[in-house]
Amino acid sequence: MINRRYGDPSTVLHLADLPRPSPGRGEVLIEVRAAAVDPGVWILITGRPPAARLAFGLRRPRQPVRGRDLAGVVVATGPGVTGFTAGDEVYGTSDRGSFAEFAVAPVTRLAHKPTRLSFTEAAAIPVSGQTALDAIRAAGPLTGRRIMIIGAGGGIGAFAVQLAVAGGAHVTAVCGPGKAPLMDSLGADRVIDYTRAEIDRDGPVHDVILDTAGCRPFPLLRRALTPAGTVLLAGGGHDAPGFLGGFTRQLRAPLAGLFSRRRLRPIAGHERAAGLEEINRLVEAGHLTPVIDRTFPLSDTVAAIAHLAAGHPTGKIVITMDR
Question: Is residue 26, in this structure, part of any structural domain at all?
Fold first, then answer.
């Protein structure tokens, strides 16, 4: 599934036959079984916000195949690869696209798929799961502390709730209508339906707030935070207006907290094998289970992107291969 120019997914995204990629040094060729959708994919298709084009191509995407998360089976290995061999079931990320029958990925961003997960479940993890992991790490020790997770029903949020619960925190999940049963099943102690109550209704009682939705103003976040608490900003706002879009908020955060004990800290997830291995241990211990909103076949990728853009999916959207 490729786009050679920026624009509306329904007009620029389409299926194409391309040569099978070859793995280079430190890479493996993977027969893709599933690949996940995330806001970064939307940015690479639409070219919005415009600032993103500085990294991915000013006039058109430098790399036309879309998708990053993937899960599948190793077909071949490139020079210098150790620890992986043909037939291994793996998951991770690829910078060369994953919405395809075959993809190449560096072993530095791969891990063996947990045996208790399907390919669909594993594909949902790499980007959002590692962003959530980095955010929870940044929160520091959580045992006995109160953490609020905004956007708890989304891709990053559903992982973050489980990680915070596993870390011993008292978790308040902020989500949309109808998601309370899911939050209860993930272990959240309290649930706030943002259509019925605002996040500061209990006053400044949270030691950490993780905002994955990107739509709450900083003063409101502070009102729900303890005097020495921390706000972590991860994801959200990909469709915000302006040259920088949602990145404006991330850049303003350190300055907004400059003269206050309450810290505001942007989080950028790092995709790496070590993070996936840590997630593997949590999965195998029963502390982490991917939440899947819907699956779409590769031929319906445009519909999958539209479902993401419509907002408020519960967990992750996953593309499965047409076989």
Answer: yes
